[in-house]
Specification:
Helix content is about 40%, strand content about 20%. By secondary structure, the protein is of the alpha/beta class. The protein folds into four domains: about 270 residues, ANL, N-terminal domain (Rossmann fold), CATH 3.40.50; about 100 residues, no CATH class; about 80 residues, Roll (Luciferase, domain 3), CATH 2.30.38.10; about 180 residues, ANL, C-terminal domain (GMP Synthetase, Chain A, domain 3, 2-Layer Sandwich). The chain has a five-stranded parallel beta sheet, with helices on both faces. It has a five-stranded mixed beta sheet with strand order 23-24-25-27-26, with helices on both faces. The protein has a four-stranded mixed beta sheet with strand order 2-1-11-10, sandwiched between helices. Strand 23 and strand 24 form a beta hairpin. The longest helix has 22 residues. It starts with 11 loop residues before the first helix and ends with a helix.
Length: about 650
């Protein structure tokens, strides 16, 4: 590989060439295939990307065009992102579990004519998209299984695209290098579509300069090196996955590991043993649920040891991790717990080698956050969004609090409006919303401040505390604060609660919908000999209502101790007859609750909660993965919850 130009690389393709020159034999990407980890070095990646880029050029892909990328985390899909950027094109990663009808808007909005996808499932979606978006002329696929007899025009295997590119490079060996040199840091690097919590997705235009700057800022802050290992398992369309498995990988040169399939992620996590890890709260919730299920199935002695040493960890684990003073007896007990509980537990979780772990995407429950730090995992919260290239605030080592997201990252200015909304300036800000100047003006004011839509405040140490989305923060009828997300996160700490939606704005009391975790509650029911026929049956069991009521009661007890939120205790709740689902538009593809949609869709249930009813019949339309629809119905029980006298008032 020829030496790159002396200037500091300022685009992702230039960074790729630098790594191929400086660390040619260093592993860049790994993928587990048929149980065996396959490795691509940086020089191999650069060679493949050049051929792929040349192949795209032969097929008519040009500077400024958009390339849709759809599938699980696969090395060839990452190569596709790099190849598009080499030509001055713009990759548009899409959620692999989205149905074709949801994708059509993005294809129309971005005028997409080229797509590289993973397999037959995604090819079928592209062909369906093409029926409503004829501009999609070129579809390329990685995995050929099941596609032998597909003869649609413009459909080619990935390998054929590489072969075409190799042919071009055989006569013009410098073609791709010359295209890369034309690239500017202010060129659009990628187009990320928001999850559409409140309406149609918006295309966030991010430049090479913005993404590289924010990736480098956090790399420097954490002291990351080329010898880190990360696991790429979240959707490529999510900016969080993209910044950790693409932008930072190309800035730092570390190794990205792609699991064999979504079902093997936990196993692959243990095999890789990442040193740098990122997950939204729901993943940490899921891992903890698995741990608690296993502990409930363990023998009495093992359970007793676990609970005893977790008590020690909760008391002093965080202090030890932050290198704060701890008494000798507690240090000895914690060291014993490290041998008997914490070390084996980290190993089971696949987190034995972690240098730093981040969580973001939504607020994490303080109890859940404290659990991981107490067992020696350096879990930290960060704050950011697609529009800010993720890194806005990060908790520095030794300054980690369970209820804040840390101070601003270097380069970020932050202020809070009188109504609590957070405004910021950052090198990572979006260039614009694609073809949507009105929406751009709504979030970027004339002075360059980005209006986040989040509500929060800076504490005495300069750490940012997020309360909720600004439009979700409300007031109860008595005027006191109502922060639904805060309440929901406290509920979701319990392994039996998978999702929750709280209501209370301008109401006298707070009420809630609960989704049980089918696996955790099912395991609990089976150990007690409680038969059930499926989700609806299990969710309606009186014993399950008693179980959930205990969780709600504990949350209410915690809320009673908070002077600001004591009046937000949950007075009534019901357990929904179905899991909230992105396919039914109840959650975004990143599994954020679409609160207003749910409130409208289940208005009859909300009304029943506030009308004092004991049960309510509901019939709900559901959408299946193949696009078909059906209905499910049930009569849901409504339960009163125990509430507590606010501690502040009692005093």
């Amino acid at each position: 590989m020829a030496a790159p130009s002396a200037a500091t690389p300022d685009t992702f393709p230039k960074l790729l060439l630098q790594h191929a020159y400086l660390r040619a034999g260093h592993p860049a990407l790994r993928e587990k295939d048929l149980g065996i980890w396959q490795t691509w070095t940086w020089s191999q990646v650069a060679d493949e990307v050049k051929k792929l880029a040349a192949g795209l050029h032969v097929q008519g892909f040009r500077r400024g065009q958009h390339l849709a990328i759809v599938g699980e985390n696969r090395p060839r899909l990452y190569f596709a992102m790099m190849a598009a950027q080499c030509l001055g094109g713009i990759p548009v990663p899409l959620y692999q579990d989205a149905i074709a009808a949801e994708m059509v808007y993005v294809f129309d909005n971005a005028e997409i004519a080229f797509a590289i996808v993973e397999d037959q499932e995604q090819v079928d979606k592209m062909l369906e998209v093409r029926e409503r978006h004829p501009r999609l002329e070129h579809i390329y696929y990685d995995d050929p299984r099941g596609l032998r007899h597909y003869t649609q025009p413009g459909l080619l295997p990935y390998d054929e695209l590489v072969r075409l590119g190799a042919g071009l490079l055989s006569v013009q060996p410098k073609f791709v290098d010359e295209e890369i040199e034309k690239g500017s840091p202010d060129d659009t690097a990628a187009l990320f579509y928001t999850s559409g919590t409140t309406g149609k997705p918006k295309g966030v235009v991010q430049t090479h300069r913005a993404l590289i700057d924010r990736a480098r800022a956090c790399t420097d802050m954490e002291g990351l090196t080329a010898y880190e290992d990360v696991l790429a398992y979240l959707p490529m369309a999510w900016i969080g996955q993209n910044i950790f498995s693409y932008a930072q990988a190309l800035v730092t040169g570390y190794t990205v590991n792609c699991p064999e399939s979504p079902s093997t992620v936990t196993t692959d996590l243990r095999e890789v043993g990442p040193t740098y890890y990122f997950a939204p709260p729901r993943v940490f919730e899921g891992l903890l649920t698995q741990v608690m299920i296993r502990m409930e199935d363990a023998g009495r002695l093992k359970r007793a040891l676990f609970h005893y040493f977790m008590g020690v960890a909760k008391r002093v684990g965080g202090k030890i991790l932050d290198k704060q003073p701890v008494g000798l007896v507690d240090r000895i007990l914690y060291a014993l717990g490290e041998v008997l509980v914490y070390g084996p537990l980290r190993n089971v979780l696949g987190m034995s080698r972690i240098k730093v772990a981040y969580t973001a995407g939504e607020a994490i429950g303080p109890d859940l956050f404290t659990f991981y730090r107490s067992i020696g995992i350096n879990l930290k919260q960060l704050y950011g969004s697609t529009e800010t290239a993720v890194f806005v605030c990060v908790q520095p080592n030794g300054q980690v609090k369970p209820d804040t997201v840390g101070p601003p990252v270097p380069g970020v200015e932050l202020k809070v409006k009188d109504n609590g909304e957070i405004l910021l300036k950052s090198p990572g800000l979006l260039k614009e919303y694609y073809k949507n100047p009105e929406a751009t003006r709504e979030v970027l004011d004339a002075d360059g401040w980005y209006h986040t839509g989040d509500a929060g405040y800076l504490d005495a140490d300069g750490h940012l505390k997020i309360i909720d989305r600004a439009h979700d923060v409300g007031r109860l009828a008595d005027g006191t604060l109502f922060a639904p997300k805060y309440i929901e996160n406290k509920l979701k700490f319990f392994q039996y609660v998978k999702e929750a939606v709280a209501f209370g704005h301008e109401r006298a009391q707070v009420t809630a919908f609960i989704n049980i975790d089918f696996e955790a509650v099912g395991n609990w029911a089976e150990r007690r000999g409680l038969p059930y026929a499926g989700y609806i049956d299990l969710a309606g069991k009186p014993e399950v209502y008693d179980l959930v009521a205990e969780c709600v009661e504990k949350v209410n007890a915690d809320l009673a101790a908070d002077p600001k939120l004591a009046n937000s205790q949950i007075h009534r709740f019901l357990i929904l007859h179905k899991e909230l689902d992105p396919d039914d538009d109840e959650l975004t593809r990143t599994r954020k609750v679409r609160r207003r949609f749910i409130q409208d869709k289940y208005a009859v249930l909300v009304d029943a909660l506030y009308a004092g009813k004991r049960e309510q019949f509901i019939e709900t339309q559901v959408k299946f993965e193949d696009g078909r629809t059906g209905t499910i119905s049930a009569t849901l029980k409504i339960r009163d919850a125990k509430v507590f006298t606010p501690v502040a008032k009692a005093a």
